[in-house]
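FAQ
Q: What does a multi-component entry look like?
A: The components come first, one per line:
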Amino acid sequence: MARSLVSRLTWTYASVTALVLLILGALTYGGLARVLGRQLDNGLLATARSEAAYATDQAGGRIHLHDSPKIAHPSGLHHHVQITDLGGRVIAATEDLAGMTLAIDRAALMENAAGRTAYQSRHMMGLPHRILYYPLEYDGRRFSLQVAVSREYIDLVERQLIGIFTVLSLFGLAAVVGLGYALARRAIAPIRQITETAGAISESNLGARIPTAPVADELGRLTHVLNHMLDRLEQAFARQQQFVSDAAHELRSPLAILKGNTEFALRRERSPEEHRGLWRSSGEEIDRLTRLTNDLLLIAQGDSAVTTASWRLLPLDPLVADAVERHRAAAHVADISLTTELQGGSAMVMADEAQIVQVIDNLVSNALRYTPAGKGVRIGTQVTGGTIALTVTDAGFGIAPADLPRVFDRFYRTDEARARATGGSGLGLSICRMIIEQHGGHISVDSALGRGSTFVVHLPGTTA
Ligand SMILES: Nc1ncnc2c1ncn2[C@@H]1O[C@H](COP(=O)(O)OP(=O)(O)OP(=O)(O)O)[C@@H](O)[C@H]1O
Ligand SMILES: [Mg+2]
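Then the predicted structure of the entire assembly, as tokens:
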């Protein structure tokens, strides 16, 4: 890929340079050819004028010419001069023509007949020539004075110009291609390094980083962004590993209890009471394993894409009332008063029913679990604007300020909760936060040690 980019860049340099040189060459050549051509024509005209004055000088009593023209062309080129009548008959000619006649063009003679000058380019005496036809008045009659000069010199200059320009252009082009190739290779080198390093990174060396150049150019920024992405991937990977090891750890204790119960039952004969006790304990551990497995599954699903296919418009208050009713018996057994204050009216939420019920269950069971006997738990709903609030308030142990920011983390339990050995795994609140955020809401907690806690869930809602 890098090589093709280098060659593409080099080819672009080369073709742009070639095009510029070609246009420059054509313009220079065209301009110079025009200047040289005009100089040649001006020289012809000056010679014609001076020869015309000399020819019609009355001293000789007839049309006459210098043996060779007095005014030479600025280039020092030799001029042939000839005078004809308008019918093309030669009246006088310079000696250098040695009896030959200049080729005569009828159309040019017609121009002279009308008193105008005419120029013509044609091959004569084996060479390219430029000829001027100049009208001449003598003795009341019109004649034509023709001055011819070879273009050989100009053609030579033009050919040399093309030659020099071509050679210089080829050298220039070669230099541009060489330089362009070297520059492109240098510019691409960091990309190659980035590609190689990025290609070598796998889950076993997620800590590897692309070396950063000291220059803060585009590639420097790309490296920075890629390294930043690797930082995030590494952190996510570490979190994932931590999650798996925490999950395994949580699975271990119910399995150890089940194994212990089994060994205890098999060691020797047991009374039916003993067996019942063991089966009850095993049943509780199986419940715990089931809850844990369900929670883990839910988290695994939540980490993949959120689907809204199961979302329905649900009336909030009846949903909360139903969920709370299911905890009444447990509250009664724990001697905790459970009150509701539902002011949601006809508010509806667009949500997955089972997931919202799970959030209510988790919050209410936490409140019951972390509140001592004789105290109360209150569940309320309110609507403010388009937002629905669900509040679960308890008068329990509360949460220390240091623990507050972490209670929504997966597997996080406060020391207080651990000490009570109430059997939670620390996933409940993290699942609540995951569900609520997937529904476009947020969850927060306000708590003071010894005075109780209030969990508030905000969800976008509508009123029917
Ligand atoms: N109402 C509450 N009062 C006091 N502490 C609480 C309350 N709710 C949660 N906590 C603290 O936050 C921790 C995390 O709660 P979370 O619901 O995530 O886990 P858990 O209840 O321990 O276990 P799980 O819900 O997975 O069975 C709890 O262990 C507890 O320390
Ligand atoms: Mg819980």
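Q: Is there any commentary attached?
A: Sometimes. For this entry: DSSP finds ten helices and twelve strands in the chain.
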